[in-house]
């Protein structure tokens, strides 16, 4: 099985209702994914309006800290809405990028540090959301815990559960949109920089003696010559130009 460093993010995109072109092309699952995306594209703006309502209409019932969290909720939910729409409208470009950059790992020091930062960033995001859910059950307050500060009608079970699942469910989607999509573009940047690093190393051997070029081409951070191609300066330059054109696309 070939390597795919974007495998996790492909599943995240599907969780957001976005199926990249060419995936599930002959499957009926594309229909429920599309319906789910339409629902999310509506629920996130609704959550934004709820935050705005809490700031503009109910600010006198809450503390300054609560209003600040509500304002932060407006910003983060609006950001998640735009990210979701941008992902969907640019899904063809994202498909080309991830397919082009998926089959290698950036094994330099900077590349490895970037991978660790990505995992740590995602872990913090999920931990924050899980802790918020646990706090709600442990403290059992009449109001949902930050950053929602929405009245929790405990006397009506149906309304209470509906309110809880809508706000907390949409908050999970918001967290995934903001954090995991950020790491998607960070990973794309990391992979692209590694390809440019390999291109630079290969370009630098032009003009060296043939024996030294052959020795350096054995290194893993070099472009691979096609079978039968001699390591002449013209062939290496042609290979570098082709790689540069692919990166520009």
UniProtKB/TrEMBL annotation:
Keyword Membrane: yes
Keywords: Membrane, Transmembrane, Transmembrane helix
Highest rank taxon of the organism: Eukaryota
Transmembrane residue ranges: 35-55, 67-88, 113-137, 157-181
Protein's name in the database: Odorant receptor
């Amino acid at each position: 099985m070939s390597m795919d460093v974007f495998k996790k993010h492909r599943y995240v995109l599907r969780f957001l209702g976005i199926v990249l072109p060419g995936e599930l092309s002959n499957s009926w699952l594309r229909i429920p994914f599309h319906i789910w995306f339409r629902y999310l594209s509506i629920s996130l703006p609704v959550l934004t309006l709820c935050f705005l309502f809490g700031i503009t209409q109910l600010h006198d019932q809450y503390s300054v800290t609560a209003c600040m969290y509500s304002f932060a909720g407006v910003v983060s939910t609006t950001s998640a809405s735009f990210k979701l729409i941008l992902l969907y409208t640019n899904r063809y470009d994202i498909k080309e990028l991830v397919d082009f950059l998926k089959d290698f790992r950036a094994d330099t020091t900077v590349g490895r540090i970037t991978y660790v930062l990505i995992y740590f960033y995602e872990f913090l995001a999920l931990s924050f959301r899980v802790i918020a859910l646990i706090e709600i059950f442990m403290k059992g307050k009449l109001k949902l815990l930050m950053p929602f500060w929405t009245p929790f009608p405990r006397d009506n079970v149906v309304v209470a559960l509906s309110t809880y699942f809508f706000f907390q469910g949409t908050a999970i989607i918001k967290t995934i949109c903001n954090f995991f999509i950020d790491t998607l573009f960070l990973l794309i940047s990391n992979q692209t920089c590694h390809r440019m690093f390999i291109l630079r190393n290969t370009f630098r051997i032009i003009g060296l003696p043939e024996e030294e070029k052959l020795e350096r081409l054995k290194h893993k951070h070099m472009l691979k010559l096609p079978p039968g191609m001699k390591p002449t300066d013209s062939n290496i330059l042609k290979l570098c130009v082709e790689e540069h054109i692919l990166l520009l696309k």
